[in-house]
Design a protein that fits this description.
alpha/beta; seven-stranded mixed β-sheet; 7 strands; globular
Length: 240
């Protein structure tokens, strides 16, 4: 079995092979920023490969059941395997490029405030990768901001519905328009979902049973009380 989906492999842009003079002309035309970006991508790819080699060995040694908290950040879950691109994660992996795990070997996947940081295309590839590694009776649980709630709050009592609006660094938010723009664009957000959109994209990735659940609740005891953010207003579980 392939350990990674071909669609998730890093595609590094390449400058064509040219003489020094032709390369200088290329740099002049394309700009040093473009060339620097190409070099940076190459460095990132090399670092990613080193991380993946180490992670592959770590994943092979995990005892069952395998429960992965992906994009764990600074909120790791005790007794889960926390995966992110930097410490304090247990295993370091750049999740944009797939998981170096054999297919059908993961029992549960959890992510909170991860999917909205990816473009839709990148998220769709990630969902397909999660489906690939998930065991036949495995489950994915996703917690993310709810676009439908944001729009509802825009039309109503927006100031009291989100705790972050009252943080000192957001004291400048003085209108509902400003609130929804911050929610859509800040913190590296790329694409927000409502339930129908997230369920559609998960089904496209091969998940059959997709359900919405209240914050902190689940039929599976291992998936209860995992959310750490009050604004995780969209919680979904998906099974094959």
């Amino acid at each position: 079995m392939n350990e990674t989906s071909p669609d998730l492999r890093l595609r590094v842009p390449q400058l064509p092979k040219r003489t020094a003079g032709e390369l200088a002309t290329t740099i002049a035309k394309r700009g040093t920023a473009t060339v620097a970006a190409i070099a940076s991508t190459g460095i990132s790819a090399a670092r990613g490969q080193i991380m993946r080699s180490a992670a592959r060995r770590q994943f092979r040694e995990l005892p069952r059941p395998v429960r992965l908290c992906l994009g764990s950040g600074h909120a790791p879950i005790p007794d889960w395997v926390n995966v992110d691109f930097e410490p304090p994660a247990d295993i370091l992996v750049d999740l944009r490029y797939g998981l170096p795990i054999e297919a059908g070997t993961v029992d549960a996947i959890y992510s909170e405030h991860l999917v909205e940081h990816l473009t839709l295309d990148a998220a769709q590839r990630m969902f397909a990768e999660w489906r690939r590694v998930l065991a036949p009776k495995g489950v994915v649980r996703i917690a993310t901001p709810d676009l439908e709630r944001l729009i509802t709050d825009y039309r109503g009592d927006w100031r009291t519905r989100h705790d972050w609006i009252n943080w000192p660094e957001y004291a400048h938010i003085d209108t509902p328009v400003r609130m929804i723009n911050v929610a859509m664009r800040d913190w590296g957000h790329q694409y927000l979902y409502d339930f129908e959109e997230l369920a559609l994209r998960l089904r496209e990735a091969g998940f059959g049973d997709v359900r919405r659940l209240p914050l902190g609740e689940s039929d599976d005891p291992a998936l209860r009380d995992l959310e750490t953010r009050a604004d995780s207003s969209l919680v979904v579980e998906a099974r094959s």
